[in-house]
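Hi again,

Forgot to attach this to my earlier email, sorry! This is the prediction with L-homoserine bound. I've pasted everything inline since the attachment limit keeps bouncing my files.
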Amino acid sequence: MKPVKVGICGLGTVGGGTFNVLTNNAKDIARRAGRDIIIEQVAMRHPNPAVEIGSVKTTEDVADVISNPDIDIVVELIGGYTVAKDVVMGAIENGKHVVTANKALIAVYGSEIFAAAEAKGVSVMYEAAVAGGIPIIKAIREGLAANHINWLAGIINGTGNFILTEMRDKGRDFADVLAEAQALGYAEADPTFDVEGIDAAHKLTILASIAYGIPLQFEHCYTEGISKVAPEDVEYAEELGYRIKHLGISSRTEKGIDLRVHPTLIPEHRPIAKVDGVLNAVTVNGDAVGDTLYVGAGAGAGPTASAVVADIIDLARTLEAPASASVNHLAFDSESIDNLRVLPIEQVETAYYLRIQVQDRTGVLASIATTLSEHDINIEALIQKEPRMENDLAQIIILTHKVEEARMNAAIEAVESLDSTHGKITRIRVEHLD
Ligand code: HSE
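Structure tokens for the complex follow:
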């Protein structure tokens, strides 16, 4: 069979990894695809020292790649929303299939991109956009296609998981760990995307869409970062039998779709609680299959290239097949996408961890318990920490049962206004994932 020709746009960490995997594993890849896959051209601004470019044609202008008549598949590995979007839309316009690792682009502009691709009869593949090397898109879109998916939850940002793990295990400083994640090539160009949960929200938006057959709704995803997680919260959570993870969580409820990213206490015996370092993990519950768990590297050259190249192989295998033979971009037929509403965070129900700083005097605990009970909030566990130094404040740590967020907000406001309470209450949501 005629070889398939690929044009790569971007030769950074992921572009370099993709070049090397396609080159180093060319024999096995050809055996899987049933034909050779050749890198025809690379658009790059700077050489990548990890890549021996050899005789492959290079250009500084992405337009050369998307208009190259010899190229069948354009691989967009630039990132961001500007040039990357032009590359993807331009390639589609020129009738080329696209592979991208760009979660931001898919989460924000996916609907427009997929509509353009469907009109042209080409495919846009994006396995590498979520959880790097874990084939989670394929697992949900194809492997679990028989199921009514009930919920999913994931550690889908390696940088954030690395920071929380190092804080817990080594008591390391936040900024120091972040700098290491940047040096290792895990962090986004703008690391606030990692730390503030935006990167995870992009990925969760995509997962929810293919799990339930709903439109991509990044703008409705509630997002809270890990920059305010204090070392004492990590310590107290452990004392209560929990770990703090930065989770993306989504479920179907009777009121709508729950879609949120925030630091979360999860019971330490849950397998996902033990996924540490830069690893990612996603757990998906389907009505037929029950709970499933996928763990692996979520970032880095090799793992992300593994997903990019798998998409290239899939396309190469079906290049001459009619468009109707391809898997739907968002797993469900575009005619049957269900416009379910995403719940505002105030309507979401979860359990809570509260850390309240109080003066150490008689009746304080009773007044907090009374205030919570007046808001119909049920306490599950409670510990009190004596002041560590003279004139210091005592800390009361409370775990509650599930309650709607709006009610918890009102209760927090009431407790904060008690005379004995100092400053703001720390609130972290708790999920049991059962
Ligand atoms: N910055 C991302 C992470 C890279 O840390 O997980 C992979 O999307």
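Residues 110 and 324 are 19 Å apart (CA to CA). The chain has a mean pLDDT of 95.

That should be everything now.

G.
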